[in-house]
Input
Amino acid sequence: MSANWVAVASAEHVALGRAEGFMQVHHGKVGSLRRIHPGDRVVYYSPTHAFKGKERLQAFTAIGVVREREPYRVDMGGGFHPYRRDIDWLDASEASILPLRDELEFTRGGSNWGSKLRFGLVKISAHDMRLIAKAMDVELS
Output
């Protein structure tokens, strides 16, 4: 059975991954990517528009399915060699988390819901993934 995940990154970083068909978490560390398996579904939550930016976004910005390829390393220059994982991104609309907070199991019942996302990758229920996908105008099979 496939798992469901929320990954966290700025919208600008998510846009790069969508354009090139990959995902990256924890500033390119491989450990989290090894927890994710082919066929798993991943949705990105972007707290901000820009990396280290102050302008809040608080929205789900991409959703997709992990491909068969194992995590791999790339050279981004300047000595930075992050790990990535290939993903098939679905055609989706951006969706604010704010109207969903009381419905999602992983954010329900607490004013400090964002703290659950601070680790950059959180496993979520199929229920939560369906709600997020619906908000993003995506129908999951």
